Amino acid sequence: MSTPFFAAVLNIARKDIQTELRSRELIATMGLFALMSILIFSFALELDRQARVEAVSGVLYVTVIFASILGLNRSMTSEREGGGMDALLISPIPRSAILCGKLIGGALFVLFVSIALLPVMTILYNADILQPWVVITLLMGTFGFSVVGTILATITVQTRAREALLPLVMLPVALPVLLCAVRATTGILRGTPQEDWFVWVQLLMVIDVVYFGLSLVLYEYVVEE
């Protein structure tokens, strides 16, 4: 008998979260990487205050996407090497449940690091980043990055060059998410009229839904390879 879909999703996500709470390796690695990235960008743009303010949204999402690549790669590698993925594949649960469970766990880790960056960047870049629509856009962007990263990390983890291969295949696919998130956040921070930047938020939502739907359909074929 198959395990109910939502029960399987929650169990997989809970297992990933409990594993991380015991080790704290993934969050610490991603957090340190993200902090060092925004500090380096801050120092690089120190001489041009206006450029620093203009670039804050780009810095935020570039940092988030690379932190997500790092986190998803390490998480999936540990799952594969520890035999966890093999156990999930032979269990009587839908393949889409594995995707959703891994997606929830990975997205929560990335989101935790992303939200923690906002007050730090507010201080370093002297920009009012802690705004409701910025947080909403960040949530949607994080979800998009996590969807793309989860399915591509499942593919690349089976290769020897997985650390180098995941960024190469993920960045082009995640580019529409990155573009929409940066454009929307830049418009919000500049204080432009809502109708000018809200279209990017709507487009980001559509892209997230399309990517998630495609991932649900394709994941079964990915894990069977």
Give a short summary of the structure.
The chain has 225 residues and is an all-alpha fold. 86% of the residues lie in helices and 0% in strands.
What characteristics describe this protein?
single chain; mainly alpha; 225 residues; 9 helices
Walk me through the structure:
- By secondary structure, the chain is mostly helical.
- The protein contains 9 helices and no strands.
- The protein has one domain.
- The protein is globular.
- The model has no long low-confidence stretch (mean pLDDT 84).
Which helices and strands occur, and which strands form pairs?
Layout: H1 5-23, H2 25-44, H3 49-54, H4 56-81, H5 84-90, H6 95-125, H7 132-156, H8 162-190, H9 194-224
Helix pairs in contact: 1-6, 2-4, 2-6, 4-6, 4-7, 4-8, 6-7, 6-9, 7-8, 7-9, 8-9
Biggest β-sheet strands, sense, barrel: none
The helix fraction, in percent, is over 70%
Using only C-alpha atoms, the radius of gyration works out to 18 Å
**Gap between N and C termini, in Å?**
24 Å
β-strand percent reads: under 5%
Helix and strand run: HHHHHHHHH
Count of beta strands? 0
